[in-house]
């Protein structure tokens, strides 16, 4: 490996590290839900607001990120993003109220555009033969960040339960959730300083007529013979883009015209289905989900750690196989497997029962100094909603939220193995198929003239659905119950499967022009005639 290739890898790794920060930021909150809810006495919708605040913030960031990237450059945009991550993490740790915590996490959401900016930067510095692998590092970094968050949460929870003076002195036992959120600060600071070491994008420099600087940057990545050729290609591409790029309204009109209607329907379906099947409800509320199985808090945190490891394993597999097996098989079979897994969870939860024995009630009441729980004696509930509502009536909402994991562990009678297999099966299927493949398809099914409008628009759609799923999951859990939530996710997956099975083409080893022809029904009709 020569020095130029090494430098490309270094810059790509540095930029892709933003995916790790994203995954860390997104998943650390999953371990804090129970603690934050108790400390600030939050309602279901307030819990949803804390978790989904970054998802709300990114909606605004997506509208201005492109402008910032074009005006100030990709590198400067990444530096701003890294600072926002640090600011958000510090403010979250220091939050003294629900409102301050939501605001701090909203600021972190403004930085979630690190994914699209990182992909843009890497795509503009990487040689064509390395571009696919280097861009794919972003997705791998995301799931590694998710896993690191689950691991950090689990370890901090274990430390907080230790009977040691240093644990109390550092406040880990009393400020557990603040330590969890504070984990992000160190890697975010490291990323900020590493970004200072990378050069500006040569394509951006050419777009701003800074040709000499662009050539100097290209010399860091390419051999002398390749520099002039690459510079000419970039200049030609920029000139071509200026001539053929449509305005936003023209691109939207073209996108939903008869020629591009199928591509738009694929983008719409992928953007909605990727999120409406509940991936971020499970990933961002992982311990809460597993507590519904009756595992208890410690076991629920450990299962969340397993979720992270499964995510990493199957994302790596997808990256390695997407060019060998093709996009369509991964999406179709993966979506089918994920839908079946969600139906398994629904079936198991729909047959669950909940009952506290006299011994359990007596032990719990004495342990937590609760005067009377006689209304719960020998009463079997077939619905988790009825069981939780009755408990909240008997012991109070705050006391219930504080001990929900323990109470669910004592009372739940459910096929836990089926639910665990279902959840892990869905996580594996998602990260092997529609999770990473959606972004590959987005980069292939839209012609160059409308791609700059189409991809951000459908990314915004996916972000809106993701925000709604995160915001309303706690409310759904209290009012719909786990069984109906998973049924809704499964039906959504089934609908997406039917649509994509009928209209999604295989794009492997095809040029953008060939894919455009496959999706153009008007050309197909002409050729038949």
SSE arrangement:
Elements: H1 3-28, H2 33-40, H3 44-72, H4 74-93, H5 98-110, H6 114-125, H7 128-160, H8 165-169, H9 176-182, H10 185-195, H11 202-207, H12 211-221, H13 224-244, H14 248-255, H15 261-276, H16 279-284, H17 286-291, H18 297-325, H19 327-350, E1 353-354, H20 358-367, H21 384-395, H22 397-411, E2 412-413, H23 416-432, H24 434-445, H25 448-479, H26 481-503, H27 512-518, H28 521-528
Antiparallel strand pairs: 1-2
Helix pairs in contact: 1-4, 1-6, 1-7, 1-10, 2-22, 3-4, 3-5, 3-25, 4-5, 4-6, 4-9, 4-10, 6-7, 7-18, 12-13, 14-25, 15-24, 15-25, 15-26, 18-19, 18-23, 19-23, 19-24, 19-26, 21-22, 23-24
| Class inferred from helices and paired strands | mainly alpha
Helix content: over 70%
> Which strand order spans the largest sheet, edge to edge or round the barrel?
1-2
Distance between the termini: 54 Å
Here the CATH topology of the largest domain equals Growth Hormone, Chain: A
The outline comes out as: globular
Order of helices and strands: HHHHHHHHHHHHHHHHHHHEHHHEHHHHHH
**For the record, what CATH class of the largest domain applies?**
Mainly Alpha
| Quaternary class | single chain
Give the uncertain stretches in residue-range form: 524-529
Number of E strands: 2
Gyration radius, in Å:
25 Å
List the domain count as a whole number: 3
Query: Helical stretch count?
Result: 28
What is the CATH superfamily classification of the largest domain? MFS general substrate transporter like domains
Membrane topology: Multi-pass membrane protein
InterPro entries: MFS_dom, MFS_sugar_transport-like, MFS_Sugar_Transporter, MFS_trans_sf, Sugar/inositol_transpt, Sugar_transporter_CS
Protein name: Putative metabolite transport protein CsbC
Keywords: Membrane, Transmembrane, Transmembrane helix, Transport
